[in-house]
Design brief:
Layout (H helix, E strand, L loop, with lengths): L1 H20 L1 E8 L14 H13 L5 E6 L3 H14 L4 E2 L5 H11 L5 E6 L4 H9 L13 E8 L4 E7 L3
Parallel strand pairs: 1-4, 2-3, 2-4
Antiparallel strand pairs: 1-5, 5-6
């Protein structure tokens, strides 16, 4: 009887340790290079190259969800990635930032990755909303920054900034 209790206690503690160390990864980036025409320009050839570079960079990541804004350039940025993983991106308008971050948080699963493609003004806000941490604003011509967020089940988070597509 005592052995069962100790065995269950040890099993429970191991499970808690695994859950506490379980993590989710969120890749947050701005859309790729676009033409200057507004309101909803397409990607340039350089932008399409950046989109392919993103897909190559994340080829081995366990991407299970992709979120974009409702703009064409964000859809085009993740098109190669979505095709590679057989995923349909979920579009949420940029002005619905709280809805976006709530959706992301509600769908997080340990060991899985989520990709979020936003805009120059929204990327730092998304990172802050998910982690409480601030990242530098994006420059007008900055299309190669990838914010890698790690969220642990115990509430801890980290943000690492990478560059891609060079």
């Amino acid at each position: 009887m005592r052995f069962r209790f100790v065995a269950r206690l040890v099993s429970g503690l191991l499970l808690l340790a695994v859950l506490a160390s379980a993590q989710s990864t969120i890749f947050v980036l701005r859309h790729a290079d676009r033409f200057g025409t507004e309101p909803d320009p397409e990607l340039t050839e350089e932008g399409h190259r950046q989109a392919r570079a993103l897909a190559a960079l994340l080829a081995d990541a366990p991407v299970k969800r992709i979120f974009t804004s409702d703009m064409l350039r964000t859809h085009q940025t993740v098109a190669p990635l979505a095709e590679q993983f057989h995923l349909k991106p979920l579009a949420i308008p940029s002005e619905k930032l709280l809805e976006l971050t709530q959706q992301i948080k509600s769908q997080l699963r340990p060991g899985e990755a989520t990709v979020v493609v936003g805009h120059r003004a929204t990327v730092p806000k998304i990172v802050h909303e998910l982690t409480g941490k601030d990242v530098a604003p994006l420059a007008v011509s900055e299309y190669d920054r990838l914010e890698v967020i790690t969220l642990w089940a115990d509430g801890r988070s980290s943000v690492v900034t990478l560059r891609f597509g060079h």
